[in-house]
TrEMBL record:
Pfam families: DUF927 (PF06048). It comes from the Bacteria. This is Uncharacterized protein DUF927. It comes from Donghicola tyrosinivorans. InterPro entries: DUF927. Residues 31-296 form the DUF927 domain.
Amino acid sequence: MAHIDSFLKEIESELKEINSKNRTKYELKEQCILAFGVKLCTPFRVKARAYDRNRANMSFLIEVLTTDGHIVEVLVRNDLLISAPPKALGVMGNRGWIVFGEKKVVAELISLWPVKEHHKIATTLGWNNEDYFALTNGQVLKAPGFTSEVVIEPQTTNKTKGTLEGWRRKIGQKARGNPYLMFACSAALTGPLLPFAPTVKSFAVHFYHHTSTGKSTLLRVAEGLWPRPENPNLKTWRATGNALEGWLVKANNTVLCVDELPKEQAKRAFADDIYMFGNEKGKGRADKDGTTKTTNNWQVILLSAGELSGAQMLKASGEKNSGGQEVRWLDIPVSAPHGVFHVLHGADHGRSFVDALSQQSNEEFGKVGPAFVERLMNDPFLRAGFEAELDGYFLKLNQALNISEALQGEIPRIIRQFALIVLAGEHASSMGITGWQSGDALEAVKHVARQWYDAQDRSISATLRIHLDEISKYLSRLSPEQKCSHKAGKDHLKPEVVKVWYTDKVYDFTKDALNEVSNGSAVEWAKFLDSQNILIRAKSGSLQNRLSFGPRNWVYRMSRSAIDR
């Protein structure tokens, strides 16, 4: 009760100061604030004013006495206090504070409160400039020389448990000899590096296998490198798109783990999820009055697991795999002697190893990621040497996978993403965080990158493959009278219905047909296919050839062997 008595005495003193400077009469009586002798509200005091990193979004940090006798802090935005006092004060009411009188009078009292402290607001989780890093358990990690107090605006309820040494001994050591586990842990540490790697955007890594192999355990361990809920249940892909956006915001600069990619996505377009995630910003929204809300942003590594690959799921759901998705979403086929594990570290069999690892991940979590960020803040590496080290790992992965320097398209970008995972794992190891030896993380990422690379069709770029897939699907949908050979063309009874003419060497697409394939972008597609030596120009150099028959005799001619392949 002593702290409540002290709290009430501070309120009495500060109300007297307000009265002395203004023509007001506020007083505290029987644990209630009165205005001119009338009950106004239960006790509160303004502890500090707070601003974000750009000295905007001014808010009041307010301590309130709840009805059950606790003192809690809430952050009340000044813009809401001015424009919508009931809405602003609702934040206080949510925590057990009660108002009896006019809400406008309470708003005025807050604005008059004598405040000596000025704090910073972490408006986002993760990095706020390079000054401080806000965690989901309410902890704020500060850079050297940054002394301001920081309050976190987003709700933070996650927990930590155990010690860093406990994690190293119980979990970190089990990752040695298990490349998928070491890869997942290294990937979970990559989020804090994304703001310092302008050549790498947010991306997802998806582990897939047709049976239960311990994939979920990889996600559970990776998630546990950061503060998380005490409830160990993983998030799943069966949630809504809005839920996914909220998860991404909360996982900013850390890792998001989502399990159980379904065989079909009935609720929404999965392709849209991939695009939104990789685009690093949410949907634009507006308040009821039409005012545009601040768009959510994030930089996140997403780890996923399921029985099918992302590409297989898109195909099963009838969705198009658009260009760029293969950079944002990396499908990793899983193959190991014991599910996803190569070495059991003394366990009798794979199931007992998975069970022990799952139990230990519930005993030791939330320590590794924050320790990594704390050391990064004291390390000049982020400002000098970062890009050079990233380039070095990029070259090592290229050499390990025997990738030609002439290879273009998405693959070099993806190898750079793998290189950033190497950098995170190796740097954390050099800081003494993981307990791994130098080179361990590099070898683990090489193994996983090779699994990914060997599953690719490297004869053509992913973008060209997507174009050819769409053309092939279109051809398969045409009826016999919509697809006609040159030989039969002159005698065709309804040449006006033909979409595609063909010989044993070429397909001739009418403009209408190519527009249907490309959603109205026939010319753009023709130019791209021309650049890939699929489209065959006319002798005049035109993108279109002219047939000697048919009413719509200007066509886009394409190599049949390339498309049929």
